[in-house]
Amino acid sequence: MSYKKGARAERELAELLWKRGYAVVRSAGSGTTYSPDIIAIREGRVIAFECKAWKRKEVVIPHHQMEKMLEWRRRSGAELYLAWKYPYRGWFFIPVYLLTEKESGYVITLEEAVNLSHPLV
Fold this sequence. Notes:
alpha+beta, Trna Endonuclease, Chain: A, domain 1, five-stranded mixed beta sheet, three-stranded antiparallel beta sheet, globular
């Protein structure tokens, strides 16, 4: 995923969340820090999103990145989701605990994402 494409998707998700009543923060340079891409808060509910925008048939989150994300979740108490934007299909929101750990990292296929995606509340 190119930086421009990823940043555009993150801004799109932030706008979508804002329109649904969430207070939203987009973390600049999130790939190099411990924070998720998007943090959304509404009435005490805190949701963190790792955003991916690509057309491959699976998303792989490397082990080191997932470890950072899980530590952030542990410290914050936030819900943690993968937000995957797939061309012409829209957004899929998958709790990270549903990703499968493999040698390459934590993986979810497009088919799994379609079946496991949560509606954005």
